[in-house]
Amino acid sequence: MAAHEHRLSLLHDHSEKHFTASHIVRDIIIGVSDGLTVPFALTAGLSGANVTSSIVLTAGIAEVAAGAISMGLGGYLAAKSEADHYSRELKREQDEIIAEPETEAAEVAEILAEYGIQEHEYEPVVNALTKNPQAWLDFMMKFELGLEKPDPRRALYSAMTIAIGYILGGLVPLSPYMFIQNITQALMFSVLVTLIALLIFGFVKGYFTGNKPIRSALETALIGAIASAAAFGLAKAFHP
After folding, report:
1. 215-220 — which CB contacts under 8 Å span 24+ positions?
2. Which residues contact 62 (CB under 8 A, 6 or more apart)?
3. Integer distance in angstroms from the first to the last C-alpha of the chain?
4. How far apart are CA 209 and CA 198, in angstroms?
5. Which of 7, 18, 54, 237: CA 20 to 30 A from 84?
6. CA 51 – CA 47 distance, rounded (Å)
7. Which segments of 100-118 does DSSP mark as H helices, in order?
8. What does the alpha-carbon distance between residue 69 and residue 180 come to, in Å, rounded to a whole number?
9. How far apart are CA 34 and CA 169, in angstroms?
10. Residue 88: which residues within 8 A CB-CB, separation 6 or more?
11. Which of 38-47, 107-116, 162-171, 206-215 has the weakest average pLDDT?
């Protein structure tokens, strides 16, 4: 009893600093990354076609609006599909526990054995789980199927996060065209501010995803630069 209380005390005192907002970070990365890159390529392509700054700005705003809606809806549907999949698997697992409890108990034992736990050690655990249907179900969902219970508001949050990220990212390459009438100057400033934004975004993305921040920054900026250069080159080719 004393040893158990001691372990609980240690657990209370020990605070692990794990990052738990992976879904939010993923949605921000998706939204901002596409928001920076796609409108950047669009503005570069239109600038290469020798149109006016007002046309670039109008087309860019329309693209950002359409892209935010499309990306947000895609995020909503993806998160909704994950939630629906979890619900179907939960119902299936519930039915299996009721219909074939011995088989499911054997699966618990097999899972624990895969972690190197001996039979005499996992037997009490199996017995305890079979007496607690909800804990048993949670165990099977997590360790047999590898599924975590999704937040019921996840789909809406995902859609909003991706859409807002896309808008914020898309405004960066468009901003110079709001203030500069000369198309060449506007393009130069757009390239400058967008590449800086891509470097900063790539660095932050690398930091939060566990990759090398500097390498992530350079890769992100390079992808954006290639996309915009390709769009500009194609526009020049068709509108010399």
Report:
1. 220/33
2. none
3. 83
4. 16
5. 18
6. 6
7. 101-114
8. 28
9. 8
10. none
11. 107-116
Identity of the residue numbered 138: D
Count of C-beta atoms within a 10 Å radius of residue 128:
11
Q: What percentage of residues in the chain have a pLDDT greater than 70?
A: 89
CA separation for the pair 95, 162 (Å, rounded)? 36
> Tell me, what amino acid is at 197?
A
Residue 164 burial (CB count, 10 A): 17
Query: What pLDDT is attached to residue 238?
Result: 73
Q: How many CA atoms lie within 13 A of 12 on its CB side?
A: 6
67, 74 Cβ separation under 8 angstroms: no
CA distance 193 to 78: 32
Closest CA to 183 of 77, 64, 55, 73: 55
